[in-house]
UniProtKB/TrEMBL annotation:
Coiled coil: 81-183
A UniProt-annotated Pfam family: HAP1_N
Species of provenance: Ciona savignyi (Pacific transparent sea squirt)
Source species taxonomy: Eukaryota, Metazoa, Chordata, Tunicata, Ascidiacea
PANTHER family the record matches: BICAUDAL D-RELATED PROTEIN HOMOLOG, BICD FAMILY-LIKE CARGO ADAPTER
Keyword flag Coiled coil: yes
Keyword entries, A-Z: Coiled coil
Gene Ontology annotations of biological process type: Golgi to secretory granule transport; vesicle transport along microtubule
Key word ATP-binding present: no
Domain HAP1 N-terminal: 57-121
InterPro entries: HAP1_N, Spindly/BICDR_Dynein_Adapter
Protein known as: HAP1 N-terminal domain-containing protein
Length: 195
């Protein structure tokens, strides 16, 4: 009677471990349930019934310890995956923000450039009336144009730098995500092997 209770307790704890693993990785839930109740394990239960009580206790401790380690590893892997996804979402939002700022800056510069071109054309129409003043205005307009060109070049460089930085960060996160997926796959293989 005591041995039958221990076997029943072992089945109950394995079922609880399967439920926790299903909540983290639902795609392996069916396989885990098949591990818990298989014809081979039914035969193993009869063998356990015939084992000495001390050997049953050692086997149960080993199984429970393994399950606890695997469950802890699965939880850590899930938390790491969640953290990586949150970082990726943050970087995506930052990338969109930088692109929007750059677009707004380009529109302002284009508007200023258009206004300068209009001023230049107006001054050229007054050339005959006041040549000296026109030359001065042209020079000033050219200086402003060069300044805005420099600002545009600086904006281009800033955009390029930001894009490169975000690309590197995304590549790093992708590499980390791949490692996390590989770790998750290895954990799944180890869980399969425990069957």
């Amino acid at each position: 009677m005591q041995e039958h209770s221990k076997v029943h307790l072992k089945h109950s704890m394995v079922d609880n471990g399967a439920a926790m693993e299903d909540s983290l990785f639902p795609f392996i839930g069916d396989n885990y349930n098949s591990f818990v109740r298989t014809p081979d394990e039914e035969q193993s239960d009869h063998e356990v019934d015939s084992m000495p009580e001390c050997q049953i206790d050692l086997t149960e401790v080993d199984v429970y310890t393994r399950l606890e380690h695997k469950e802890r590893d699965l939880i850590l892997a899930a938390e790491l995956g969640k953290s990586l996804l949150e970082k990726n979402e943050f970087l995506t939002r930052e990338n969109e923000r930088v692109q929007n700022e750059f677009q707004d800056r380009c529109e302002i510069l284009e508007q200023q450039k258009h206004e300068l071109r209009q001023r230049l054309e107006f001054k050229e129409s007054e050339w005959d009336a006041n040549s000296a003043q026109l030359n001065s205005d042209i020079k000033r307009a050219q200086e402003e144009l060069e300044e805005h060109k420099a600002m545009l070049c600086a904006a281009e460089r800033e955009k390029s730098r930001a894009v490169d930085e975000l690309t590197q960060q995304n590549q790093k996160l992708l590499s980390q995500l791949q490692k996390s997926c590989e770790a998750e796959r290895q954990l799944s293989i180890q869980v399969q092997q425990l069957r």
